[in-house]
Specification:
By secondary structure, this protein is mainly beta. The protein has two domains: 53 residues, no CATH class; 58 residues, no CATH class. Helices cover 10% and strands 16% of the residues. A three-stranded mixed β-sheet has the order 1-2-3, with helices on one face. A two-stranded antiparallel sheet has the order 4-5. The two termini are 19 Å apart.
Length: 123
């Protein structure tokens, strides 16, 4: 998930209990460092990724890293990822009914070893 110019990654102003969602195996990125990222979780404003994780109990397996897209400057942008992509094979394979058969590029969604990338593209 990309924060955009506001650097707010999650904006959940509900105070519902239990948690409105279970979040994990995501990839977060902002133009600021993780410690300066902004989060709104259940009516609380939180600064910093590790503080958000501690307060929410969410995203234990979610990296905060540059997604390293191949070339976002082209039109349309090339959202394939480079081999050093931090989320290659870091996703959770929840089965074909959840993750689908093909990625957005038409490639098999799950690789031959049963692994899946975080994001919309498999390598």
């Amino acid at each position: 998930m990309y924060a955009g110019p506001t650097n707010v990654l999650i904006n959940d102003f509900t105070s519902s209990v239990p948690n409105p969602a279970s979040l994990d195996h995501n990839l977060y990125f902002a133009t600021v460092v993780a410690a300066s990222s902004l989060w709104n979780w259940q009516s609380k404003s939180i600064t910093g990724y590790t503080n958000y994780q501690a307060a929410s109990g969410q995203d234990a397996n979610s990296p905060f890293a540059d997604p390293q897209f191949d070339n976002i400057a082209t039109l349309p942008p090339n959202l394939d990822v480079v081999s050093t992509y931090p989320a290659v094979n870091a996703g959770t394979n929840l089965g074909v009914n959840i993750v689908g058969v093909f990625d957005f590029g038409g490639n098999p969604r799950v690789n031959g070893s049963g692994q899946i990338n975080i994001g919309a593209y498999e390598q």
